[in-house]
């Protein structure tokens, strides 16, 4: 097999990111003359530039359909490892935007001082490489390796502060992740055994025709693969590591986990479910639906009484994953991507706001530290309220509302009435979760209201997120156009 | 040779690995159990590769990849474990519980 | 200033009503419509007015009585005048609306507005507990009837396909609907006119100012029920069952109320029960289903308006000058003949009123009651059971009426010749109360503004009996007179002996009110508490339980979050196993 | 012949694996791991996957276990038996593992119980290499990123805080 | 005119944004003035729109009388929308930005504009003690946008969207400006309100989506012409879901539990808007969506709906009889009145619907007035507990208590005042329900509802008796309690006038709702 021009085009973005990663590492390693600020800024700019360039490239390829690394199959169409198609483009856009946001949140003076800058950005870009490949992957080997490429650098990033909390957080995430990889690989081995192929497309075509005896094994194998992703995206009951890791990691890394890592997991699962393992009508979709219901309920319920901001966001992100899994269970890629996009934008914003508070207020972990912020720090407060409303899916957060709406529509159109009811219930619980925070924000200021000079990069990122959320609220069509 | 022999061996190894992960406290022994699980995967892959008479050697290739993945994982994992040891002075996974949610009476 | 303005408006309006009655007198019946709209395709709601003899008659009655009351009130009342006068005027307006309306809905507006006004006016002395509860009771009981009335309107209106009174009866209607509709209307009438079983509010409405009692509870509002049946007489005539029910209700009521009046110990209460009784006589006349009967009823309505208005106003003078209208108080003054001497006009006019009520020959009540008896007799002679029942009841009532009139008259105005002034006749609970002599020197006649209406109405109470032309059936006249004497004699003899035996049953008014209290009010209150409790402890509990379950679940999930990574791993693996089993279940 | 070979290697692997998770001495467990992995490599060989077997021995036995032993030394793991090496939940863990084994085992038996396999010698380095560089180019490339990232991650985590950059 | 409608929506929202953007130093009074002016402008605008809607248009749309016997009794099906805006908004989800009004929605829009205007006017002088008036005014304006939007939405999703717009502002209004003595209580009340309503609207959304699945469109105009047929299966499920969702908002027993707390704890203007306007969203939704879109399925559930409504009438009235708090009492009375409206809708007859619509307007005006009065009493006594306020208010605050009596009489459905016509027509509708409904059931319900009307009278009289009447000697006047102030009079006068006018002359409004 020769690598064609199409292959290069299709892998341009991951390749670019990988090159960027190496470049960042080299600059960090060999440039020792400049001040810390200059170095940090340059690295930030390079990383951001690479991602931005990738984003531009992605946008330029909007309607492309480019299968890459293909192999002519014995029967049927060619089997490919990576396909650049509108869905891939949409997912890449989401991932890159998320990555860009995290880079913005890690600019100079924002990133915690004891984190090595170069390695941080290197790991970030490596994880993005994995994430982008994962979103386009169409064979199980690529999927599992790409998933590892997303995961391992993230764990390194979690522990990058190299302190007690960070190492513990990383260990928890790592152990769970390794277990999940093992489980997933075990499932993949059976899938291979049953179908004789690792290409999703081939699996999907061969699956219906297999021997009834094997079907049970195929089912279990698919289940294992899905469960493996369930670990990554912290679907209940595979979620235990998430709150601890989120609260143990530096805020920027938490944002990265919540945005890029999670999106990558969802993207991978989406690819798996829609293209291979669980084609329409498969019973595995019911399993995913059950996972969705349990995940959103447990996540939201557990978030109900959290008193720490990050933990609340952690649990609520579990709830959001539940909502993501719902349209995913019925294979509505458009709704998933739209939901993911809205989620990414506002989660970035929310973590940005949390980072500001935690940076400027020692021990400011608690919701009560946000008391009266709408008055004492109106811009940040209102932006945070808006983000939370988008997460809750209520006006004025129309982006959240319509993406939830699309999820509902997908589920209803697929005749999953019970899941829709559970979702309705969770809209309420979710609102209760976010309202507690909003209430704190709107309360009369405490004795020492939170009012600081916010660093301009943070202002920029948060405003961009808010602006994007507003635009998406007014024109929700954009969200749904992402996945074409 | 019946296909079932390697498959059952793989199941056994996998479940022993699961037991090890769940029952062992020491993080390093947990990692060792993971290796057992990954070996079960490899055994499966090889067996199926042989069963399918896969001319493309897909199973074997993936087995090699899995071994590589295992190497990468163990490398990073040991680094994290060592970091934990530096911070905590032990490597017991179930004793690292700093990140438990803090109780606070601030909530009315 | 505002009060004066309202007084002018009030009196002026009453005069206007009289003027209107005069202008409309003799004009051919006619209807005019203004305003209206379709609701759906078969309900056409309009406002219509009409005029005919009945309208003119009622307008005259309302105008005169309200003019008298307005004038009287100027002397009678000197606090919260503005609201009072405004309400009385509004009340008059409502009654006029009822009278001139040709639309059932417009009529209903006036009808219920009267109820509201009477509620507010009865509660005029809202400092007093009895006024508060009386007002509330009056409104609620009449409203209960009004709901029936409203349903009756539905039934008749949709049955006849019109809500215009003048067009009712024009089109065919199923007998069932007709009976149901008229019976439901009858419920409203019973409520408004305080007939059995909705009679208890009227006596309790007496804490209101006396002129209000005169206006509302004697001459106009309660008479509205009579008016309504007269207005819808064509419809009622077709519904025989309804007329029978009406007859039974009327007969029961007249006797019931008369018995109650015999044991009442307060002037206004006696008068109130007598009103109920007299209204029942009117209904009895109507229930005969003959033109004579209707005529007699309306005649009685006219005379009754005069003498009952008069009597209430007289009672008002007593109340105003003495401060109370209870027998026990009045008798302290009577002992020296003070009431008669100091208040001659009141005494004379009240005597005339009582005479008219008792049916003393020559007075208005005598003629009108006799015409009812005569109509009943004619009907009974034609072989009607209803006629017989009515005849007997009215005659009995005549006797009873004479009894309580004489009793009232004697005990209030004359000192009993019995020993010790019949100590204990009314002072059951406080025998020493009688010994205190009130200072009767300050007692004097009311102002002329109050007396003038008395005189006008007294003239009516005498003269109206001849308004219908004098045609007397001597046999009947003799019979009723004898009955009246038979009723009066025991009263006199009891008074002579200084005794006033009041059977407990009568004194408690047959225990209807407490029974209602037990059967209706208490359960409703109980239900209310139950509902609130249910809201709080059942529905609310579900909501709270949901919230608490959420919190508990939250706490539970927090507990599960042990911080021990091996717990997480175990949970995950168990989850995998569970999912596998679940998938197996789903798969097979 | 193949079956016998495989069975022997498999039995050894099973025994060694049980020892890995039950041994009370950590170092012994690590050494039992070597045995287990080697036995599995033997299984691979019996299935004619010689290249994989070789990689298994090289990477696992040669690299990973050495790494583990280093880690054990660095974390000052004692060589004497430790009673607290397994948690108190181990019976529960055993039950879970057993249930899982039963489910998987029965499923596998039901599905593949009658299948036979005839190992043919195609597990040469050439075959695998061809597959890697012809078909699995993309995963291979990504794998390189993974290795690099893991390497850098491990290095950076091993450095002392603050030693770098200022 | 469609521009005017959009302006009615946009102007309050934009003003709210401007108010928030103003520097913090800007006085609260300025905000109140701005709010009054803007909401006054909206009121004028809605009046103009109304005038334009009902003036004869050519080609003339006069209804030609049928000469072929009586036309069938029909319900609102087709929507002849006026001032229409129809833009595709989210094509992927089939969502359109479709606005328009007709004679059913226009009076409600005007009512909203009026009440918001009065609330802003009221806030010129009288504001809750805590919190900033500026934000309160801004939130009121947002609520106005949401409500007018709901009333003019012709797309189910848009309806849902505007339906949700009011939630958070109302939550804030209750939570921040609510009863200052009971912080935890008002938080609980606000949260219960918002959570129950959100659950309801989510359930309603499920119904909408089912409708979309069946009919392939969210557009009410299209759906009005091609309703979803069938009284069972998916259509029935959709109808039940929508009905439940709207019933939470309305609220119908037993989903009313959020209402008493929310009303009792809200500030005066909040209670007025909550009762006067927000509850109407539920009943309007039933008339606008349930009946035209799912006629058969609605007929299936109508008896149950009517049954629950009747229970609401009785339960609401009974609960009022045992209340000791003025605001709670009025809140519970809303349960009863909305029960009447639900009954009217459930009759599926032109009379019942006209009655429900009329009762909507009347309840908005009268209960608005009642809450204003209750707020006035509460402000003067710093509590709304009847036992603490004491009795004999006639002696202490004669004008205020006189107005309270008036409002109570109006609310209990006294003929001649606005409350009567709605209830009367609803009962008439129950006497004469839609053709496909079981008549006997509705007759029984009519009788029970009639008794409920008596109970309504009973609790209002009890309120007057416990609050207004009584011996002044036992309840001396408090020194600071002043009778009706000028701003109060100005604010309340329109409501009083409208109560009388609508009571005496119902025909103007009734003529709009001919349903054919």
Quote the average pLDDT of chain C. 86
Number of helices of chain E: 21
Strand order of the largest sheet of chain C: 1-2
**Total strand segments of chain E:** 2
The portion of residues assigned to helices of chain C is: over 70%
Flag low-confidence runs of chain E: 60-68
| Structural class estimated from helices and strands of chain C | mainly alpha
Ends apart, CA distance between termini of chain E: 24 Å
Short description:
Chain C has 588 residues and is mainly alpha-helical. Chain C is 74% helix and 3% strand. Chain D is globular, with a radius of gyration of 20 Å.
Description:
Chain B has a single domain, classed as Helix Hairpins. Helices cover 71% and strands 0% of the residues of chain B. Chain B starts with a helix and ends in a 20-residue tail after the last helix. Chain B has helices spanning 4-23, 27-52, 58-88. Chain C is mainly alpha-helical and 588 residues long. Among the domains of chain C are: 244-507, no CATH class; 518-587, no CATH class. Chain C has 23 helices and 2 strands. The longest helix of chain C has 49 residues, at 512-560. Chain C is globular. Chain E has a two-stranded antiparallel ribbon with strand order 1-2. In chain E, helix 13 runs antiparallel to helix 14. The longest helix of chain E is centred in the middle third of the chain and has 33 residues, at 183-215. Chain E is 71% helix and 3% strand. In chain E, strand 1 and strand 2 form a beta hairpin. Chain E has helices at residues 2-21, 28-54, 105-125, 133-152, 156-165, 167-177, 183-215, 220-225, 234-249, 258-265, 268-293, 295-321, 326-347, 350-381, 386-389, 393-396, 398-411, 418-431, 439-467, 486-504, 507-510, and strands at 82-90, 95-101. Chain E is globular.
Highlighted features:
heteropentamer, A: 484 residues, mainly alpha, two-stranded antiparallel ribbon, 20 helices, 2 strands, E: 516 residues, two-stranded antiparallel sheet, 21 helices
List the helices and strands and how they pair.
The complex is a heteropentamer of chains A (484), B (108), C (588), D (166) and E (516).
Chain A: H1 5-10, H2 12-30, H3 36-60, E1 66-71, E2 79-84, H4 86-105, H5 117-136, H6 140-158, H7 164-195, H8 200-206, H9 212-232, H10 241-248, H11 251-275, H12 283-303, H13 309-329, H14 333-360, H15 373-376, H16 378-392, H17 398-413, H18 417-442, H19 456-474, H20 477-482
Antiparallel strand pairs in A: 1-2
Helix pairs in contact in A: 2-3, 2-5, 3-4, 3-5, 4-5, 4-11, 4-14, 5-6, 5-11, 6-7, 6-11, 7-9, 7-10, 9-11, 9-12, 10-11, 10-13, 11-13, 11-14, 12-13, 12-18, 13-14, 13-17, 13-18, 14-16, 14-17, 14-19, 16-17, 16-18, 16-19, 17-19
Chain C: H1 2-24, E1 30-39, E2 43-51, H2 53-76, H3 81-100, H4 104-122, H5 129-160, H6 175-192, H7 201-204, H8 210-219, H9 221-231, H10 233-238, H11 240-263, H12 267-287, H13 291-322, H14 327-334, H15 338-342, H16 344-358, H17 364-381, H18 385-413, H19 448-463, H20 474-496, H21 504-507, H22 512-560, H23 565-587
Antiparallel strand pairs in C: 1-2
Chain D: H1 2-22, H2 26-46, H3 50-74, H4 90-112, H5 125-134, H6 137-158
């Amino acid at each position: 097999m020769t690598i064609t021009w199409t292959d290069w085009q299709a892998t341009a973005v991951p390749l670019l990111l990988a090159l960027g990663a190496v470049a960042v590492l080299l600059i960090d390693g060999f440039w020792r003359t400049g001040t810390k600020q200059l170095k940090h800024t340059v690295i930030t700019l390079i990383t951001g530039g690479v991602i931005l360039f990738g984003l531009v490239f992605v946008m330029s390829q909007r309607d492309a359909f480019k299968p890459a690394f293909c192999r002519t199959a014995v029967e049927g169409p060619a089997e490919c490892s990576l396909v650049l198609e509108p869905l891939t483009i949409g997912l890449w856009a989401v991932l890159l935007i998320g990555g860009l946001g995290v880079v913005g949140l890690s600019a100079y003076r924002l990133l915690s001082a004891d984190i090595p800058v170069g390695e941080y950005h290197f790991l970030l870009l490596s994880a993005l490489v994995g994430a982008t490949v994962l979103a386009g992957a169409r064979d199980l080997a690529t999927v599992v390796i790409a998933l590892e490429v997303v995961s391992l650098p993230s764990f390194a990033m979690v522990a990058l502060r190299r302190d007690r909390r960070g190492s513990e957080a990383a260990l928890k995430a790592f152990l769970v992740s390794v277990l999940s990889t093992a489980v997933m690989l075990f499932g993949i081995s059976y899938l291979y055994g049953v179908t004789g192929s690792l290409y999703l497309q081939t699996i999907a075509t061969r699956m219906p025709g297999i021997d009834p005896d094997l079907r049970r094994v195929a089912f279990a194998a698919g289940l294992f693969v899905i469960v493996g992703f369930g670990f990554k995206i912290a679907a209940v009951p595979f979620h235990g590591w998430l709150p601890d890791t989120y609260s143990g990691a530096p805020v920027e890394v938490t944002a990265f986990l919540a945005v890029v890592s999670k999106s990558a997991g969802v993207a991978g699962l989406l690819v798996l479910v829609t293209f291979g393992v669980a084609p329409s009508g498969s019973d595995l979709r019911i399993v995913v639906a059950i996972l969705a219901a349990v995940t959103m309920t447990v996540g939201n319920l557990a978030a109900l009484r959290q008193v720490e901001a990050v933990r609340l966001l952690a649990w609520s992100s579990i709830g959001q994953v539940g909502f993501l899994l719902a349209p995913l269970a019925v294979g509505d890629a458009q709704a998933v991507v739209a939901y993911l996009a809205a989620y990414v934008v506002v989660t970035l914003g929310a973590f940005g706001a949390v980072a500001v508070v935690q940076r400027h207020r020692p021990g400011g972990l608690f919701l009560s530290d946000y008391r009266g912020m709408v008055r004492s720090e109106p811009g940040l407060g209102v932006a945070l309220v808006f983000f939370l409303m988008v997460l809750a899916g209520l006006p004025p957060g129309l982006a959240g509302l319509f993406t939830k709406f699309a999820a509902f529509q997908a589920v209803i159109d697929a005749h999953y009435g019970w899941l829709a009811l559970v979702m309705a219930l969770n809209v309420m619980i979710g609102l209760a979760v976010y309202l507690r925070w909003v209430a704190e924000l709107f309360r009369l200021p405490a004795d020492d209201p939170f009012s600081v000079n916010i660093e301009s990069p943070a202002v920029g990122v948060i405003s961009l997120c808010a602006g994007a959320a507003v635009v998406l609220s007014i024109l929700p069509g954009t969200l749904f156009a992402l996945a074409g | 040779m019946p296909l079932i022999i390697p498959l059952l061996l793989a199941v056994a190894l996998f479940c022993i690995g699961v037991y090890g992960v769940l029952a062992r406290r020491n993080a390093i022994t947990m990692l060792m159990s993971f290796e057992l699980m990954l070996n079960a995967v490899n055994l499966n892959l090889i067996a199926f590769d042989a069963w399918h008479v896969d001319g493309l050697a897909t199973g074997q290739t993936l087995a090699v990849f899995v071994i590589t993945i295992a190497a990468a994982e163990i490398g990073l994992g040991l680094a994290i474990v060592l970091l934990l040891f530096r911070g905590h002075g032990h490597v017991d996974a179930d004793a690292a519980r700093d990140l438990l949610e803090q109780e606070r009476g601030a909530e009315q | 200033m505002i009060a004066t303005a309202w007084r002018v408006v009030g009196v002026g309006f009453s005069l206007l009503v009289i003027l209107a009655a005069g202008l409309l007198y003799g004009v051919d019946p006619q209807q005019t419509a203004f305003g209206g709209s379709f609701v759906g395709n078969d309900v056409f709601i309009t406002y219509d007015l009409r005029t005919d003899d009945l309208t003119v008659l009622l307008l005259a009655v309302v105008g005169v009585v309200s003019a008298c009351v307005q004038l009287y009130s100027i002397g009678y009342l000197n606090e919260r005048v503005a609201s009072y006068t405004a309400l009385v005027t509004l009340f008059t307006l409502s009654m006029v609306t009822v009278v001139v309306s040709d639309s059932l809905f417009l009529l209903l507006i006036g009808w219920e507005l009267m109820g509201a006004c009477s509620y507010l006016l009865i509660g005029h002395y809202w400092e007093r507990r009895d006024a508060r509860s009386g007002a509330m009771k009056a409104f609620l009981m009449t409203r209960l009837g009004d709901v029936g009335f409203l349903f009756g309107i539905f039934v008749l209106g949709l049955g006849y396909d019109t809500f215009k009174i003048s067009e009712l009866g024009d089109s065919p209607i199923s007998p069932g609907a007709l009976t149901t509709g008229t019976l439901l209307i009858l419920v409203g009438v019973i409520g408004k006119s305080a007939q059995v079983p909705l009679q208890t509010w009227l006596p309790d409405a007496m804490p209101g100012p006396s002129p209000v009692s005169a206006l509302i509870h004697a001459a106009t509002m309660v008479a509205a029920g009579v008016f309504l049946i007269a207005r819808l007489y064509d419809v009622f005539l077709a519904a025989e069952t309804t007329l029978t029910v009406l007859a039974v209700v009327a007969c029961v009521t007249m006797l019931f109320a008369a018995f109650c009046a015999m044991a009442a110990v307060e002037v206004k209460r006696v008068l109130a029960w007598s009103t109920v009784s007299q209204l029942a006589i009117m209904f009895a006349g109507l229930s005969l289903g003959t033109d004579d009967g209707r005529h007699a009823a309306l005649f009685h309505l006219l005379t009754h308006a005069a003498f009952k208005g008069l009597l209430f106003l007289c009672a008002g003078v007593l109340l105003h000058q003495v401060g109370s209208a209870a027998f026990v108080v009045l008798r302290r003054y009577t002992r020296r003949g003070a009431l008669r001497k100091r208040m001659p006009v009141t005494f004379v006019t009240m005597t005339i009123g009582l005479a008219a009520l008792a049916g003393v020959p020559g007075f208005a009540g005598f003629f009108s009651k006799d015409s009812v008896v005569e109509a009943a007799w004619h009907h009974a002679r034609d072989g009607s059971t209803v006629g017989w029942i009515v005849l007997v009841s009215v005659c009995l009532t005549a006797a009873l009426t004479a009894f309580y009139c004489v009793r009232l008259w004697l005990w209030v105005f004359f000192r009993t010749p019995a020993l010790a002034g019949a100590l204990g006749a009314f002072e059951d609970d406080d025998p020493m109360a009688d010994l205190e002599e009130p200072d009767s020197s300050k007692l004097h006649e009311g102002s002329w503004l109050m007396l003038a209406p008395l005189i006008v109405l007294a003239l009516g109470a005498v003269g109206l009996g001849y308004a219908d032309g004098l045609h007397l059936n001597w046999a009947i006249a003799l019979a009723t007179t004898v009955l009246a004497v038979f009723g009066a004699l025991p009263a006199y003899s009891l008074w002579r002996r200084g005794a006033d035996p009041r059977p407990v049953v009568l004194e408690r008014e047959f225990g209807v009110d407490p029974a209602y209290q037990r059967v209706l009010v208490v359960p409703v209150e109980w239900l209310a508490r139950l509902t609130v409790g249910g809201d709080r402890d059942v529905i609310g509990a579900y909501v709270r339980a949901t919230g608490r379950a959420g919190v508990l679940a939250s706490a539970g999930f927090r507990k599960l979050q042990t911080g021990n990574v091996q717990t997480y791993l175990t949970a995950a693996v168990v989850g995998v196993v569970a999912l596998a089993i679940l998938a197996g279940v789903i798969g097979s | 012949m193949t079956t016998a070979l495989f069975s022997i290697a498999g039995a050894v692997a099973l025994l060694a694996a049980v020892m890995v998770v039950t041994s009370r001495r950590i170092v012994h467990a690590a050494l039992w791991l070597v045995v287990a992995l080697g036995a599995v490599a033997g299984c691979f060989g019996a299935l004619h996957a010689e290249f994989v077997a070789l990689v298994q021995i090289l990477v696992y036995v040669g690299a990973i276990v050495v790494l583990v032993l280093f880690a054990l030394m660095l974390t000052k793991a004692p060589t004497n038996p430790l009673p607290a090496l397994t948690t108190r939940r181990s019976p529960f863990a055993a039950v879970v593992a057993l249930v899982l084994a039963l489910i998987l085992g029965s499923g596998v038996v039901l599905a593949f119980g009658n299948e036979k396999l005839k190992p043919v010698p195609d597990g040469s380095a050439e075959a695998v290499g061809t597959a890697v560089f012809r078909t699995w180019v993309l995963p291979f490339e990504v794998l390189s990123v993974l290795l690099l990232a893991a390497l850098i991650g491990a290095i950076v985590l091993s450095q002392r805080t603050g030693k770098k950059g200022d | 005119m469609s521009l005017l409608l959009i302006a009615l929506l946009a102007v309050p929202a934009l003003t709210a944004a401007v108010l928030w953007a103003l520097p913090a130093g800007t006085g609260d009074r300025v905000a109140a003035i701005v709010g009054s002016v803007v909401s006054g402008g909206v009121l004028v605008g809605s009046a103009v729109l109304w005038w334009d809607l009902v003036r004869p248009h050519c080609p003339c749309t006069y209804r030609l009388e049928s000469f072929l016997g009586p036309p069938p009794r029909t319900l609102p099906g087709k929507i002849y929308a006026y001032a229409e805006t129809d833009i595709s908004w989210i094509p992927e989800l089939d969502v359109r930005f479709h606005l328009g009004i007709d004679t059913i929605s226009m009076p409600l829009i005007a009512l909203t504009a009026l009440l918001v205007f009065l609330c802003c006017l009221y806030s010129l002088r009288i504001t809750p003690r805590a919190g900033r008036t500026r934000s309160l005014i801004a939130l009121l304006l947002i609520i106005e946008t949401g409500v007018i939007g709901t009333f003019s939405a012709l797309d189910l999703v848009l309806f849902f969207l505007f339906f949700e717009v009011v939630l958070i502002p109302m939550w804030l209004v209750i939570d921040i400006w609510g009863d200052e003595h009971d912080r935890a209580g008002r938080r609980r009340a606000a949260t219960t309100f918002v959570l129950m309503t959100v659950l309801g609207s989510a359930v309603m959304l499920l119904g909408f989506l089912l409708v979309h699945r069946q009919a392939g469109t969210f557009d009410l105009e299209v759906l009005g012409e091609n309703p979803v047929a069938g009284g069972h299966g998916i259509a029935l499920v959709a109808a039940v879901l929508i009905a439940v969702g709207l019933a939470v908002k309305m609220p119908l027993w037993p989903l009313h539990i959020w209402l008493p707390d929310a009303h009792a704890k809200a500030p005066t203007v909040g209670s007025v808007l909550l009762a006067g306007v927000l509850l109407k969203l539920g009943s309007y939704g039933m008339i606008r969506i349930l009946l035209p879109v799912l006629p058969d399925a609605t007929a299936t559930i109508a008896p149950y709906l009517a049954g629950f409504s009747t229970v609401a009438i009785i339960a609401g009235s009974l609960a009022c009889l045992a209340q000791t708090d003025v605001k709670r009492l009025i809140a519970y009375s809303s349960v009863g009145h909305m029960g009447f409206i639900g009954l009217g809708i459930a009759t599926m007859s032109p009379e019942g619907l006209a009655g429900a619509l009329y009762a909507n307007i009347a309840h908005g005006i009268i209960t608005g007035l009642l809450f204003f009065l209750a707020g006035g009493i509460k402000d003067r006594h710093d509590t709304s507990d009847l036992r603490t306020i004491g009795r004999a208010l006639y002696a202490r605050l004669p004008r205020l208590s006189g107005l309270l009596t008036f409002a109570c009489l109006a609310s209990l459905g006294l003929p001649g005042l606005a409350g009567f016509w709605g209830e009367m027509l609803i009962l008439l509708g129950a006497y004469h329900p839609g053709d496909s409904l079981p008549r006997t059931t509705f007759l029984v319900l009519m009788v029970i509802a009639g008794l409920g009307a008596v109970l309504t009278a009973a609790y209002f009289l009890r309120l007057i008796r416990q609050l207004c009447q009584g011996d002044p000697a036992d309840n001396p006047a408090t020194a600071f309690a002043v009778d009706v102030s000028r701003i109060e009079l100005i604010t309340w006068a329109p409501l009083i006038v409208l109560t009388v006018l609508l009571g005496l002359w119902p025909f103007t409004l009734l003529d709009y709702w001919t349903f054919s």
